[in-house]
Structure to design on (534 residues):
């Protein structure tokens, strides 16, 4: 209890890390629900890696002597690299999605493996970049500046608000693209808009907590929530709540036992997922109980 | 386009990519008619319906609709029910509400009047009792009723259905066709229904468009589906 009070104290030394964890825990599941609904989970794996590749590419500018090394400008440089790569990839995936399922799966797989390879190649000769990215890959959420926290909050708040306002349109084009066309909706616009919001969330999240934690929060809370929800509202808000609470509890566990925060969050979500699956299966095995199809 | 025709297809070719499934399609559909698009699996019925709806742009030719009091026609579409992913946790009512989205501006909430209209459409399709049930958990016939209700919620001038009776039992099939016949009789709505079920088409529709091996024949049921023609159709389908 004492440790909870310490963590939640506004003067806590790592308070920004707590807030950042919770922000990522709330925002990633919100956009992850749409990746799950559209059966694009593999995109959720690939995009954080592409985002990391963007950061590695941005850091490589130092190695190539194109930009002088400066501590204050690093965050902006990394954000630019991450956002440009993620949004570029998402626009590409959006284009491929229009042209068929097999094309998009092949393009996501290719992008994933190339992003991983290029991240390593770009960082291997860049000691500053390697150090920064390794921290991110490990999911260390320790040094979070006020500015970084503020920007992340603003971006996630805009994304959440946009999702709330245009939920009707996003759901329609995701559930039944053909009917959306007959209703004179600009399906390409809404799909691209949805993917841009997902890409923006992922690039900001990867910059703060790394690809592993980002993917964990994109996938696991929606999967857990889907098992228990009986409507879309419960699914979306349930996933968001599970993400937020897990981030807070994960931080507590990591702080208590001196573990890296990101992997602890993901491991905790994994335990919750296994437990929730067992509970769901036992409910489904009861006689005369309706059960849902799994995603 | 003739005065009483709602839809004209002029030298239309439809298909996927560069591959034409049907070419040189010339059709006119009378306003207020109930037409059946008859053909075997793979004959191009769904492709033609999707091209009429604008989902698949025609490869060549012209698809022209008559305007209704100076405005573009509202199209109601009932797709094949197995295209929907059960991962979506939507109630039947929420699915029907999607039919109103064409009239509700982006970012706006669906108002009470539209919600009441969606309930009325569920009643008309005989699916009122399914309103709160999860769409993914409905039987084939129940889903079809909900999809008809959703198409009605668009306030359509032209209703297009893609295989609404495929894969459902005889009782449900008859009940769905009775609903469509009632809607047609009451609203004089122009309906085009793709089907490979000869019995359904012969029993319920007025005009037939028969697709076979890229050829198209069109005419009233009484003229086109004569015993001799039916024998020929069945013989051709079997071979």
């Amino acid at each position: 209890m004492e440790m909870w009070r310490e963590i939640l104290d506004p003067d806590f030394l790592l308070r920004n890390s707590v807030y950042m964890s919770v922000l990522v825990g709330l925002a990633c599941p919100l956009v992850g629900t749409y990746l799950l609904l559209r059966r694009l989970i593999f995109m959720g794996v690939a995009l954080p890696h592409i985002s990391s590749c963007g950061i590695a590419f941005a850091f490589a500018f130092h190695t190539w002597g194109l930009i002088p090394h400066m501590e204050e400008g690093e965050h902006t440089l990394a954000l630019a690299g991450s956002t440009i790569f993620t949004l570029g990839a998402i626009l590409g995936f959006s284009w491929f999605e229009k042209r068929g399922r097999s094309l998009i799966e092949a393009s996501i797989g290719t992008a994933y493996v190339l992003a991983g390879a290029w991240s390593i190649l770009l960082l291997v000769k860049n000691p500053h970049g390697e150090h920064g990215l390794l921290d991110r890959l490990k999911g260390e959420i320790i040094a979070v500046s006020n500015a970084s926290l503020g920007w992340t909050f603003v971006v996630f708040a805009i994304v959440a608000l946009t999702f709330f306002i245009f939920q009707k349109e996003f759901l329609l084009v995701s559930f039944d693209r053909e009917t959306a066309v007959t209703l004179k909706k600009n399906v390409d616009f809404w799909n691209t808009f949805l993917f841009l919001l997902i890409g923006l969330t992922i690039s900001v999240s990867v910059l703060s907590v790394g690809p592993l934690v980002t993917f964990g929060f994109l996938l696991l809370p929606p999967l857990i929530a889907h098992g228990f929800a009986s409507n879309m509202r419960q699914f979306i808000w349930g996933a968001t709540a599970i993400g937020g609470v897990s981030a807070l509890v994960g931080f507590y566990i990591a702080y208590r036992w001196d573990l890296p925060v990101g992997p602890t969050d993901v491991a905790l979500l994994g335990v919750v997922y296994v437990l929730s699956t067992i509970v769901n299966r036992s409910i489904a095995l009861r006689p005369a109980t309706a059960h849902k199809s799994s995603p | 386009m003739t005065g009483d025709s709602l839809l004209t297809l002029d030298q239309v070719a439809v298909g996927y990519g560069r591959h034409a499934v049907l070419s040189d399609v010339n059709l006119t559909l009378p306003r207020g008619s109930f037409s059946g698009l008859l053909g075997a699996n793979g004959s191009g019925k769904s492709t033609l319906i999707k091209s009429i709806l604008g989902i698949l742009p025609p490869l060549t030719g012209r698809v022209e609709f008559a305007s209704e009091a100076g405005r573009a026609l509202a199209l109601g579409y009932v797709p094949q029910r197995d295209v929907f992913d059960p991962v979506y946790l939507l109630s039947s009512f929420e699915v029907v509400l999607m039919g109103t989205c064409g009239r509700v501006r982006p970012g706006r909430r669906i108002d009470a009047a539209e919600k009441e209209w969606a309930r009325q459409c569920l009643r008309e399709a005989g699916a009122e009792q399914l309103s709160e049930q999860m769409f993914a958990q409905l039987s084939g016939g129940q889903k079809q009723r909900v999809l008809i209700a959703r198409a009605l919620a668009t306030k359509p001038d032209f209703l297009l259905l893609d295989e609404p009776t495929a894969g459902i039992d005889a009782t449900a099939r008859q009940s769905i066709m009775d609903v469509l016949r009632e809607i047609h009789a009451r609203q004089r709505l122009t309906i085009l229904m793709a089907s490979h079920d000869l019995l359904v088409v012969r029993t319920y529709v007025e005009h037939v468009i028969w697709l076979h091996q890229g050829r198209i024949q069109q005419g009233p049921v009484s003229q086109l589906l004569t015993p001799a023609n039916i024998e020929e159709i069945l013989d051709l389908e079997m071979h």
